[in-house]
Amino acid sequence: MMSSQPNGGHANGASFGSSQSRNFAAPKSKRFSDIPSTLDIPVQGQEDEAVEIDLQDLADDPTELCSLFEMERAARTYWMTVALAYAKQNKIDYAIEVLQRGAAAMQLNNPREKLSIVTCLCWMYLWKSRDAPRVAPEGALISEAKTKEYYLQLATQNLNEASRINPAFPPLFLARGVLLLLKASLQTPSKTTATGPAGIDPEKGELLRSAIKSFDDASRVSQGKNMLAVMGKARAQFSLGKYAESLASYQDVLSKMPDLVDPDPRIGIGCCFWQLGHKEDAMHAWQRSLEINPESKVANILIGIYYLEESGRVSTDSPEFPALYKKAMTEYTQRAFKIDKNLPLTCSTFANYFLSRKQYQTVDTLAHRAIQNTDVNAIASDGWYILARKEQLSGDLERAADYYRRADDARGGMERGYLPAKFGAAQLSVIKNDMGEAKLRLEKMSQQSKTYEVMVLLGTLYAEEVFANQDSSSKEDKSAETKKAIQLLESARTAWKDPKKNLSPDSAVLLNLARLYEGEHPEKALQCLQQVEQLELDNIPESKYPEGETDQGKILTAIRKHLPPQLLNNIGCFYFQEEKYALASDFFQAALDACVRLGENGEKKEGEDENDDDTDALVTTIGFNLGRSYEAEGQLDRAVECYEGLLKRHADYTDARTRLAYLTLRRQPNEKAGPDAVAKLYQENPTDLEVRALYGWFLGKSSKKRPQNMADDPEHRHYKHTLQNYDKHDRYALVGMGNMHLLSAREMRRETEADRQKRSAVYSRAVEFFDKALQLDPKNAYAAQGIAIALVEDKKDYKNALQIFMKVRETIKDASLYVNLGHIYAELKQWSKAVESYETALSKEGKAKDAGILSCLGRTWLNRGRAERNLDGYKNALDYARKALEVAPDQLHFKFNVAFVQIQLAMLVNSLRESERTSFQLEEASDGLEAAIKALDEIAGANHPPYPKHDIEQRANMARNTQRKQLERAMASQKEYEARNQERLAKAMEIRKAELRKREEAKRRAEEAERERQEKIKRDREAIAARDRALAEARAEEERQRMEAELTTDSETGDKVKRQKKKAASSGRANRAGSENAERPARKGRAVRRKKVDRDSGDDGEEDGGGARRKRQKLTRGSAAKQDTGKFKSAEIVVDSDESDLGEGGEDALDRAEKALEKSQRRSRSTGSGGGFGSGDSGSEDGGARRSRKKGGASARKSKSARISSARAVNTDEEDEDRMDIDDDEDDRRPRRRDQSDDQDRGSPAAGGGDDDDEEAETAGATRRSGRPQRRRGIVDESDEEEVEEAAAPTPGSPGTEEGDKGPSGKADTSMVDADDDDE
After folding, report:
1. pLDDT tier at 1289 (50, 70, 90 boundaries)?
2. Is the pTM of this model over 0.85?
3. Helix residue ranges per DSSP H, 809-891
4. Which residues pair with residue 1115 across a beta bridge?
């Protein structure tokens, strides 16, 4: 990418509508710009005469001009100028004729003069190849047709001839590159696997790489100035699929030659952006090209394709679609077609447009024109595809197949090829009903690319195969096809959710999925239908909505009548299967309303008899479904009304009569009307299998006692007659026969082995009937349930039977299924699942008070209580046994069940430990035992007891004699146990209460102690705060008084000024004036600087006569807001003087400090380290102050000066003692570094105190202070760290500290303690 922007354009060729780019003048094409308007041909032998030729109005026949040039032996340039003038007028054939005559003339004069003409002739042939047809026109001989390949061969011949004359001729490199480019574009794609990022064939890739080498050679010989060579290289890189490299090359051309418009690099930049996925940038580049050259046919058609692409991203129902499509076709594509009617890309685009308009003759012309004129295989493939679509729509399938094949081969065919052409060929196979061929083609396509259209069509083909198998008489296993169809259609359904693909949901896909899901996953089928319903609702115009209605439910009900009634009926059926009968009724009613609307529309049209028949059939079917839904809801009157209405329309509608007879029997089971209705229906329709099924069910329900011989049973005879005389494959009759055999086997004797074998044979016969029904209908759940029952009752095969029941559970919603499941779980001792199954059976319609199910629940809870020794289980069993007895009080075996459970409950309570039961439970068990004894006596006295009378009496006697006494003894022992336990509990409760009282008392005392402690802390804090405030106020007052004491009245101005110090007497030492101190520059970056040592040994008079007067250090104070009111002095700013002062004799402060240090060490060795300071005039501190100074740390040592008066020294000691306490604390918190000078300072005596000694001690102290990093308060600037580093290593001549008043310790800057004293 080029980083710089060229003048007049951008690196990517886009102006983006900037005002600056509009101010530039649009560049013009420079092609043929050097051709003059006239040409003077000199006459041979006459220098003053010439023949003038008007190059703008050349003759159509160049023979005369060529003869003139030959006679006058015109130079090469004249021949080429005239030829280029013809080319400028697009008369390429005349230009070629002129060049050929010129080449022949130059051959006679000088063969090397022929080189340029031959090269130019090569270019003309290359030009001709661009306009020549790709293939020979229909009817023309291939040998005589002048195709692109023909002109490329001529160009190759001329190029070879020029290379023989001079192979290093620079224009040949560019011509060879263009020739290779054109040859590569005409290279027929091979059907082998292509390589490279863009799937380039090896032969084509080799040609393109050779072209790149030729362009590199052309650029090299021109030293990088040949931009056409770079353009050619970019084109070759683009053809190789190297779009990023091609983009860089195009941008390089544009940056170096922004006025190049023919050819325009902006077109190439846009194409690269398009391939890289930056389509907006591509459009901007093409728009810029169009701004420069509004007549650019390529830019117009490319922008038109961009807007076509954008229109494909929005829905055809969107308001944006017409605007985008119109802009693409009328504003850009049509303009490009007007500029050049033979531009291949424009022709193919317009051919597609006219194909949608079904103007097939125009389509044929434009498509053939695109195929003939293009040198791009993809455009040729598009042309063949358009022709194939035209032939397919016209009905010529053979020609369509041929054109699809050509379109596919133009892009490589086989695994490569053109996917829409392959899809079209698959569509042709479907039209020809060759589903195998169609699926084979689509399978290959799906392996290459998971295209949406491929998935939809292939999934639909598999779905249709499954549906056809369902309707056929011979059933085959199509589970694999079903799975594949669902997978493909679900993939297509998922593609709708991708916003990038911009796909609209297809109702046909959803309907096919609903049919595929109908059997195994009805809930998914319902979801698909609901989605179709939503799509249909979205398509209803707002004009169909009811006016003024705001209730969404009513609006939905009103507009549903505009939906297809078949859809509404199917949704209602699925709701019916889910037992959502109210919703089912609503949809069935909406479907009827939709049928009425269709009927009204059909009456307005003539000749719609077939439509009326379909509507009537829909009304009949939907009306029957509505009646069934009302029937399931319990609205029997409305159901009867529906059936009667159907019979009024169609009196022979047997299904409606059957339901009416059933409802009559259901509503009047014990009256004559019900059985008579069923018998009458059977007599009128004895051959109808549905009627025969109802009559067989009626016989089974009406039989009060079945005969011992099954052959004498009327229900058995009826089913047998149906299978023998009407339909041997009637599934209801087969299942009925199986059930009859199950009932017969269940009642057979089983005492002997022969009886058991005979019984097992009857079970096997029942299984045969069930198995036959399953063969006819693999999803017949009732037949499967019969087999499971036979397995349990005959083989005791609970596990296999359980698997069968689990499979049919979703199909059979009857309570009997769950009762059977409960039986199996009870046998497998899975009590929880057994109870759950029985309770589910109870929840079914009409089974809430079923005594048999209640009795089964009681038995299950009893067995569970026995297994777990759980008293609650026995109680639940007793509750269910009593409920069963309440439902059927006349049934003695239910009464026996209650008594049996009561006896078992008494036995359990008696066997429990005293800690596991209560006396109340024993009393309940005793009462139940008495009731059981009474019930057993009554049962034993009945005429037909359920069990042998002797056994019942024996059980009653055992309860009366044995269990009653056991319970009495247990009651007595239980009461004694509970009495003892009550005493222990009372004692434990008292102990517990005492412990709780102790804990509460301890907690109260702890809370009071904590409260007192908090109050004491609060008082202490208040006292400390008051003391701190008083101490701060006292120190502030002391500081104010000290500051006032230091002020005096100026004798001249009368203002208050700071008191000046008196100069100390000279000790005989003179300040040395050294060049180092004088010339050392002052350090920058610190506001506060260390003061120089001013040790003048003479008096004021000596200053005037002893040497140059030194500048005084000037002190400036910080702002009042920054002053410290505490123990520390205010921050001060010291401004160094311009010169450094030296004493007499050239001795600086460092020398004096070293001498003073040596002298101090000698005194220390002579007097000992434990001595204190004397009381001389030096104003030294006493021993106590010295100890306080040592404890206070380095701050105290820095704050004292050795040259002040005694009175002032005493004041200073007092202030230091006050400050040492705080300094001690601060030193404890922050340890300070101690160096050798500090130790020497603390150990040096001052016994012989004189001025010289004091001066030496002060100098030594100043030297030590200058050798340590300084800390300060007050104004701090950015150079503190730098200042510390510089101060850490003292240099000769570094200034010390003059004598001064007491200074702050701790964090204070000791370099400023004497600043006030020097301020004059």
Report:
1. very low
2. no
3. 815-827, 831-843, 851-868, 871-887
4. 1134
